[in-house]
Each structure stands twice: as structure tokens, then as C-alpha cells.
């Protein structure tokens, strides 16, 4: 999904209603929450109407996004519906397909059958190659409780420490750069610094694509001061 910046001179009403809905008095009081996608941490108002339908808008009082949302944030409510989501496991018998030289077929399956198959494969792998032959590589967008369960499973039941997360590996280059440049793994700035600087240098990052709301804040200030410049490498 591509990212879209809603500038100050654009009205939220131009966004298709399927992606975002404007808060009205007919909705129940909104719930303040945070967008889970990137590190900008945009504030979100989750609105629930009398029928239980959820819609989202940007939180105008949030200091990160001031009411704006990119296309991912504005489509958060769509992730709650099940029309385009899997609600049961689908089984791919790749070993049989490879043996027969046929394309992998995907069939709906029962949870018990899939879980029994996973447990059997893990047990067979451990029996043949030892506990250290299993590793978990987990998503960077798991909740804290999900991380706990994953760590409990690999360390307490599988019996090793072979678990890593995209939330660490994807930032490893930034950690190395911060330590070499500033002596510590931290970001030595805040969002207001981007708006007050005269020259914004971006190295190895497409900020307009990855963090459109934050980049939009700089562009909004730049529109009022043509002396501000952006340099990308």
C-alpha cells in the first residue's frame, strides 16, 4: 500500500469514505489510541457507532501527527473486518506436491490437524537434529503478550534461545550508525527539530515513503520558508 500525505491545504473529506470517515455527533465517544505501523506514533481516534462499525480518524490533539494519517493509518478500520482475512488455517502439502511434480495445492484444514502436523514436524526435527535445529524469527509488529508466548515456547518447551525479531534486525544498521556518530544508540533529536532546521539531510532513507506524516510536517514548514532545503543521498 502506497503512502499519501494529507497537506494542510487538503481536506480530509477528499479521502474515500471506504478508507476514512469523518467523526460525527452520531458516533459514540472516540477512543484515543496509537497507530501500530511505523515509529512516528501517530495518534488515532477510533470511533464505534451504534451498530458496532469502527472507523478511524487522526487525533488533532496528538503532537506527532496533529490529525493527519497516511494511507495505512487511515485504513486501520479495514483490518478489523474478516472479508479479506483468513479465519481458518490452509494446509499446503509441499512435500507431496514436490514428489509428484505438481503445483502446491491449498486446502482449508481444521486447527487440530494443522497443529498436530506442526508438532509432529518439530518433534521429528528435534529428534533427528537436536533442539538447536529449531529457530523462531518473529514479526516486529507482535504485541508484548505475543512476544512472551513466543519466547516461552522456544525457551521453555523447545529448549533453546534461538529466537530473533525483525524489530531488532531491521534497526541493526541504525544502531551501528548512531553509536559511531553519537556514541550511543539513540536518536538525538525530536520532531520539532525537523521543522526548525534549515537543511534536512536524508541518507539511505526515503522519508517521504516510509514516514509520510513526519515528512509532511517538514514540507508544511518549508512551504512558508523557501530557504529551507532537503538533501537526499
Number of helices: 9
Average pLDDT: 81
Please indicate the percent range of residues in DSSP E strands (runs of 2 or more).
15-25%
Radius of gyration from CA coordinates = 23 Å
Oligomer: single chain
Q: Mind describing the biggest β-sheet?
A: 3 strands, antiparallel
The rounded distance between the terminal residues' Cα atoms is: 24 Å
Order of helices and strands: EEEHEHEHEHEHHHEHHE
The count of strands amounts to: 9
Helix fraction, binned, reads 25-40%
Query: Which runs of at least 5 residues are low in confidence (pLDDT < 50)?
Result: 1-25
Shape: extended
Please state the structural category.
alpha/beta
Sequence of strands across the biggest β-sheet: 1-2-3
Structure description:
The chain is α/β, with parallel strands linked by helices and 233 residues long. Helix content is 36%, strand content 15%. It is built from 9 helices and 9 strands. The strands form 4 sheets. Strands 1-2-3 form a 3-stranded antiparallel β-sheet, with no helix packed on it. Strands 4-5 form a two-stranded antiparallel ribbon. The chain has a two-stranded parallel ribbon with strand order 6-7. A hairpin with an 8-residue loop joins β1 and β2. 12% of the residues are buried. Residues 1-25 have low confidence and may be disordered.
